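Schema walk-through. Below, the input block comes first and the output block second. Nothing else is stored per chain. Lengths vary across the set, and this one has 334 residues.
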Amino acid sequence: MTSPATSTTFERIAVAGGGAWGCALANVAARAGHAVTLWARDARAAEAMQTTRTTPRLPGLTLDDGVAVTADMTQLKTADAVLIVVPAQSLRDVATKLAPLIRSGLPVVACAKGIERRTHRFMTEIVAECVPGSRPAILSGPSFAADVARGLPTAVTLAAEDEGLAAALAQALGSATFRPYHSTDVRGVEIGGAAKNVLAIAAGIAQGSGLGASASAALITRGFAELFRFGKALGARPETLVGLSGLGDLVLTCSSPQSRNFSLGLALGQGRSLAEAQSGKLAEGLFTASVLIDMAQANTIDMPIATAVAAVLDGRLNVDAAIESLLSRPFREE
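--- output ---
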């Protein structure tokens, strides 16, 4: 007997979130042949996007003809699948508002990379809690919104507990240039996406401080070892952690100013204050760092690089002291 997950064609896709990543994924779904409804919180912005077919969040992007923009959330209730594309700390609010519109069994894909600061919950846990009866999934991996919006080749991971659902969603969103690989390791995918943001801040600090390419390579390598230890302790599969949503995403975000987390660290390393470094842009790692360390300590996981980042962000260490704390660690076997 064919399950609902594999029999549906996902003709109608809803995207909740009108930011850069939401607009990029709306175009992805439209290019894959689906009718897409894109919800933006701000009514004035939604009207402008619907009229001009552009967004200031992604200059040069033209919304696909198959994307309808609205500020009326009730327009999402006929969707065959919903992508929630808002920052991690906003996911609970949007999921709660969506809940009355979501029918039982509907796939709800979280597209944020983070851990909720107040509860220490991962994104699919929030979806399951706020939208009971839905089928949570997570989309993550090495992807910049601008690249995806332009149709540049991108590969990501889409995970759900039900393999049939994960495969069906990946097939529905996939195209020649957007390649989702499906998985059932939901927690592994979520851990990779959350931890790499914190480590990308460290990589930015190293570059901004002028430590050189050799130090950056060492930091990324040792940072991945921390990510791997954390993931393994929380039940992630090794193959997920060394895959697109783990190592792949870490490499991307630790090596490009396009990454908001790397850019935040870069500015801190250059001597700017945290307020100056943020420059009005949201870096998920800023909220995830302290949560990651709390969880690591609770599970007796050694994460010195992430710990140093959290200390800098919380104002307990300045950048120079954080670097010194890492360089003065005892020599040990790799």
